[in-house]
């Protein structure tokens, strides 16, 4: 019997996934054989495979725009208490004048990866025979590729994690082996099926979106915001497709599949890295996993309730009790 932990893409929302994983590993004492991550999920799987939850929490609650971007294409303003994003025209112009192919550069993230995912961690994961997999999009061959730690050198492994996290064209493009690589989420945002192919018989999948769409976007005001909206539309539908295929594969193979969605919308732009918010999201993820466990154990929970309905019911109980 093999257990797998799958973590979807979601940028800064990965902090929520960290909190969920912390509860599952530390409180539910779950031991996973397979770890599959996409984008921010690929950044997390090395620490999770070794049970380094506190180190991962420290990493996710101490990053900001400067630790990710070497050339930040975003300008963030606070308007009426909300973060509004626009483009830094000079930064993007600088990138184009230097012959680069993207609006911004995320070389600082590459440095961060090598600092926090060390050679010792790489060797320890291999020695423990943990199946750790990261998802990348090969833009040259139009293929999704899954890179296993056992098949990579340390430097290659760090490259694949970096590529998986790079939300092109706002972040760097990895050019390797005569191919161009980008965020794995462009094709496999929630790689449930890959965990099944690798032999998983039980899967916990953390999905960094709500189960049901909870808002409509405001009309785009410029080409930059329109591009964001377009990418979000495509990724939302990729996610739904991945989950549907994953559910069907799990059913046909008799795999137990547990899905953990975010109960509320955390952010409308996951490329904004706010240390305070990410700290709150980590704690929210932990409490949500705990609440879901309590709800599943309750004799009063009908089987047809969604994650959203569970969360709303728990919130109503909290209010009624005056907490």
Q: What does this entry look like structurally?
A:
The protein is α/β, with parallel strands linked by helices. The chain is built from twelve helices and ten strands. It has helices spanning 14-27, 40-49, 53-60, 65-68, 89-97, 107-116, 119-127, 154-165, 192-197, 223-253, 275-297, 307-320; strands at residues 3-7, 34-38, 74-79, 82-87, 131-138, 143-148, 174-176, 179-183, 202-207, 256-261. A hairpin with a 2-residue loop joins strand 7 (174-176) and strand 8. Helix 1 (14-27) packs parallel to helix 2 and helix 1 (14-27) crosses helix 11. The longest helix is centred in the last third of the chain and has 31 residues, at 223-253. The chain is globular.
* Structural class by sheet pairing and helices: alpha/beta
The stretches of 5 or more residues where confidence is low (pLDDT under 50) are 299-305, 313-323
Q: Into which percentage range does the β-strand content fall?
A: 15-25%
Q: What kind of sheet is the major sheet?
A: 8 strands, mixed
Fraction of residues in H or I helices: 40-55%
Number of helices: 12
Gyration radius, in Å: 19 Å
Label the overall shape.
Answer: globular
For the terminal residues, how far apart are their CA atoms? Answer: 41 Å
Question: Strand tally, please?
Answer: 10
Mean pLDDT: 89
Give the ordered list of helices and strands. Answer: EHEHHHEEHHHEEHEEHEHEHH
């Amino acid at each position: 019997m093999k257990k797998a932990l799958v973590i979807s893409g979601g940028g800064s929302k990965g902090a929520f996934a960290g909190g969920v994983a912390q509860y599952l590993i530390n409180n539910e004492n779950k031991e996973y054989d397979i770890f599959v991550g996409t984008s921010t999920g690929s950044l997390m799987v090395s620490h999770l495979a070794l049970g380094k939850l506190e180190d991962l929490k420290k990493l996710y609650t101490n990053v900001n725009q400067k630790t990710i971007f070497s050339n930040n294409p975003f300008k963030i303003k606070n308007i009426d208490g909300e973060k509004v994003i626009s483009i830094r025209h000079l930064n993007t112009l600088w990138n184009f004048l230097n012959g680069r192919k993207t609006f911004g550069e995320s070389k600082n993230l590459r440095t961060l990866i090598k600092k926090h995912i060390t050679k010792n961690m790489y060797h320890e994961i291999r020695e423990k025979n943990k199946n750790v997999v990261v998802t990348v999009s090969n833009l040259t061959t139009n293929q999704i590729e899954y890179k296993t730690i056992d098949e990579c050198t340390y430097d290659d492994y760090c490259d694949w994690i970096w590529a998986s996290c790079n939300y092109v064209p706002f972040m760097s493009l990895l050019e390797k082996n005569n191919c161009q690589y980008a965020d794995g989420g462009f094709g496999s945002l929630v790689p449930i099926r890959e965990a099944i192919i690798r032999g998983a018989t039980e899967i916990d999948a953390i999905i960094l979106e709500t189960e049901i769409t909870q808002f409509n976007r405001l009309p785009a005001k410029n080409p930059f915001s329109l591009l964001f909206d377009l990418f979000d539309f495509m990724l939302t539908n990729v996610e739904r497709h991945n989950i549907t295929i994953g559910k069907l594969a799990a059913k046909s193979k008799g795999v137990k599949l547990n899905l953990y969605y975010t109960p509320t919308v955390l952010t409308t732009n996951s490329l904004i890295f706010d240390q305070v918010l990410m700290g709150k999201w980590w704690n929210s993820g932990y409490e949500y996993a705990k609440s879901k466990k309590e709800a599943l154990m309750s004799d009063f929970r009908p089987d047809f309730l969604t994650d959203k309905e569970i969360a709303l019911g728990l919130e109503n109980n909290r209010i009624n009790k005056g907490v």
